Each structure stands twice: as structure tokens, then as C-alpha cells.
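Lecture 7 notes: from sequence to structure.
We start with the chain below.
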Amino acid sequence: MNQYPGQQPFAGRIPQPIRPDGAGATDFGPRDVLRDMENPDMLVPPVTDAGLVPNLKFSFSDTHMQLNHGGWSREVTVRELPIATTLAGVNMRLTPGGVRELHWHKQAEWGFVIMGGVRLTAVDQNGRNFIADVGVGDLWYFPPGIPHSIQGLEEGAEFLLVFDDGSFSDLDTFSISDWFAHTPKEVLSANFGVPESAFANIPTEQVYMYQAAVPGPIESQKVPDPYGTVPLSFTHRLLAQEPIRTPGGTVRIVDSTNFPISVTIAAALVEIKPGGMRELHWHPNNDEWQYYLSGTGRMTAFASNGTARTFDVRAGDVGYVPFAFGHYVQNTGNDSLWFLEMFKSDRFADVSLNQWMALTPRELVQTNLNVGPELLDALRKEKWPVVRFPNFPSPTRSS
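Predicted C-alpha cells for the same chain:
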């Protein structure tokens, strides 16, 4: 391989953009071989890929890290992934006791705990308060304008935040420290009925995140509220849900039907076992924003008019599928592929290609696709969100 000044040889097998039929040619660089190895379906696209489909993937590893005492954060918005206009995501870590300060947003906030645990506090517009501890696999949802805080418990925590606006930035929030810093002390004095000296040590700028002691037992921090607690819980135990089980994996769906407060964000937690695939489908309600939690896979989006594009995905990646694009996600590794499907909607909805064909007159499908009994007899009237070949016993849906 030719070497440019300063270019280091690569000791492993170097992938080349050449198909088995001979299409393509060697690439002598300069190039990022490790990146090419992570994206084999972009280096050598399937022959079925065609046309101009925009980028539908971005990795949190390629984002700017905001480092603070108490933790860190990074985000994927339209600035990083321009196609993702409906939702934005923030990956955040809090140390034990680390606090995401008292704040609120113009957008709704949906949270998923990846590791550890956090304590949440909030107060609604009617003065009803809320405090809860959540752990791995638990969710929260704060409607727009609801003030809240997040604090790491004994292990600290890492979590995903999703906001119902692709242009959102977590740095553009309404923080209590920022408001205090930009309000005259005489106004603060009049508002709270205390001398100006009470504000001598307030922050001079937005704190955003800070280190504090690990909070005590939740009972010790509860504040008696004459107006009571919020009528709808801001939290939900997603992993405690019994999943839809299919031969290829599991799916847990959460939306306003089982998490009533979550009226602008719906989601599914999908597990694809090795050899499995999230079936060919599309969504009739909105774009899909994906977050990959573990494993490796590939996702192909069909954009109509003879266009399709394939992306390799792994833990930490964000994927995006525009409204109504047909797509699938296939596990390409030896471990389960776990990811979240997110939608700016009050309800989760998808259309199964297999189910649609099974519930359409047989002769119509046969003449449309020029297929025979081998396919027609295998069509299923029941939706299997995750499939596997060969087929195994029927899936179960727990009540």
C-alpha cells in the first residue's frame, strides 16, 4: 500500500471497495481504515442501494463533550444530523451526587436510564410536587415548561434525554442560576421578601451541572405539599413491562396509552437476537429517531422512487428514518442488538409489510409481485416486529 509522509501502515486486513463481481477498485488512501471497517455496508454498499438518500446516522462519539464538575453531556441535534428535525437527543452522565441544576425547557423531555440511578424532582403549574428515584430501564417525561432537577444516586448514572424538537440544545435551557445571575438583587429582594444581602453569593452565570453530596433517603427529602402530588406520574418502568416476544427478539412499547403523561413522545425498546431482524415496516405517524444501546447491526431505508441506502450501526449511534420510509434493522453481531425507536407522537404505530400482504387478496399479491405459493403460504396475518430465519414457534404477547 502506498504511503504518504507520516501515514502509518495498517497491520490488519485492509477492506477495499470491491464487490465480489469485481465492481469497484482498491483505495490506497489517504483513508481511515478503522472507520471503513466499522462501516462495511457504506464502503461496499449492497447492490440494492441506489439513488440519493441523505445521511441517516451520527455517532455520539463524534459530538462535542461538555465537561463539568458533577458529570458531562453531549448532544445530537439538527446541527450534527440535519435530517433529524423532529427530535434531538442528549447523552448525559452524572457522578454520585452530581446535579443537573433546577431548570425547565420549552420542549418536552423524555429520559431513559442506561446505568445507575437518579433522583428526580419537579413541580407542576398547580403547585403539586413530585420526587422519585429511577434506575436502569426506567423512563421519565416532563412536559414543556415544568421545572425539574436530576441528581445522581450512589452509583451515579448515565442516561439518554430526548426532546421533541430537532433544533433543541440542552445548553439553551432556562436555568435557575442563570435567571438569578441576570436579575437585579433589589428585584430578588422584593420578590422573596428578604434583604439583598441574602443574595451576596449567588452564581454570576449559569451553573448547568455541579457536584453535591449523594442525596439521603427519599423520605428524608420529601416536601409536604398543601396541593398534593402530581396526578399523573412523571416516571415509568419500561423494563418491568412484559415484552412482545417473537422468534427474533423482544419489543416493549411505551406511549400515552400506558404512560399517560407522555403525550408528545412514543417509543419502543427493541431487542434483536443474533440472526434476527426488525421486520420490513414503516411508520404512518412520524419520523423515527433511533438510539443504539448495545450490539452491532445494519439499517437500510427505502426512500421510494428507486432509492435506498444502508448504514452500519453500533452502540452509541443515533439513526434516523424519515416519515413513511420503509426500513429494517438487522443484527450483524453475536450478541443481542438493543435500541430505542422514538417518535414525536402520542402513539406508537407501525405498518408490517408481511401483515399487509397477508391481509390483501392473494391473487392481487401474486400478480403484483409475480410470486407463487412458497411466499404466499408463508405470509402471517399476525404482526411479528422482530423476525428470524428459519421461523420458530409463534410469538406471544403478554397482557
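Points to note: The radius of gyration is 25 Å. Residues 242-388 form a domain with the Jelly Rolls fold (CATH 2.60.120.10).
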